[in-house]
Amino acid sequence: MNLSRRAVIRIMVRGTVLYTLMPFEIARAGHRYPETVAALKFLHGIELSVQHAYKDYAEQARADGYPGIGNLFRALSLAEEIHARNFKTLLEELDVPESGVLVASEVRDTKENLKKAIDTELYHIEMVYPESLEDIRDEAHARVIRFIDYAWQSEKMHRDLLRQMRSGMGFLFKMVAGRIEKQARKFYICTFCGSSLEKLPEAFCPVCSEPIDQYVLVTHGKPVQKVKELM
């Protein structure tokens, strides 16, 4: 089977990335939107796998004495769950019953988990999402393009912070971890698009433009709370 350059990139992901997925070339056969279906399956598998990995990382962080980092992973896991849900819904709308493949990730100590997560997020931002949007551009399925872009924009929100964190993940880890512990106690997640913020917008989500009552609050030591119930 001949694979495209993008398919090869997807398979030959660095070992730091959380998932290993087989190409979805077979998903292209016999559908009106073959590239779109293949991209959705690929992205759904990624988001599903990362969601479960981050949930495990949150538990490990708390066990390692980093509750703030645990809450960060908890918030990110929820955002990835929303992305995965949206992609699965889109596949169902396209009459595709199969979805992406869940791949388990190895859980290590919090330092290694955080390094892996940072590299994964940056890989998604800089390669996976722009490559996927390029793949489906010619098929012009507006709703799918919009939701994939929502996921991309929401993940880009913390790109600068992630890069700064990665630069200090060597012998400066304790300093980086201490900073996260102070800052990562509260996150607002849009349940429509998955955008994640440390401060609630005034009226509308900056990614999908839905009203702020779509947001939930993720706070360390408390159940997830709906913002509209706090207003």
Please describe what this structure looks like.
Helices cover 56% and strands 6% of the residues. Helix 4 runs antiparallel to helix 5. The N terminus is likely disordered. The longest helix is centred in the N-terminal third of the chain and has 30 residues. It starts with a helix and ends with a helix. The chain is of the alpha+beta class. A 4-stranded antiparallel beta sheet has the order 2-1-3-4. The chain is globular and about 50 Å long. It has 8 helices and 4 strands.
Question: What's the arrangement of secondary structure elements?
Answer:
Elements: H1 5-11, H2 34-63, H3 67-93, H4 110-136, H5 142-156, H6 159-167, H7 173-183, E1 186-190, E2 196-197, E3 215-219, E4 225-226, H8 227-230
Antiparallel strand pairs: 1-2, 1-3, 3-4
Helix pairs in contact: 2-3, 2-4, 3-5, 3-7, 4-5, 4-6
The rounded distance between the terminal residues' Cα atoms is 56 Å
**How many runs of DSSP E, i.e. beta strands?**
4
Major sheet characteristics: 4 strands, antiparallel
User: What gyration radius follows from the Cα positions, in whole Å?
Assistant: 18 Å
Helices, by number, come to 8
Give me the strand/helix succession.
Answer: HHHHHHHEEEEH
The rough form would be described as globular
Rounded average pLDDT: 85
Summarize the structure.
The chain contains eight helices and four strands; from the N terminus they run αααααααββββα. The chain has 231 residues and is an alpha+beta fold. Helix 2 runs antiparallel to helix 4 (110-136), helix 3 (67-93) packs antiparallel against helix 5 and helix 4 packs antiparallel against helix 6 (159-167).
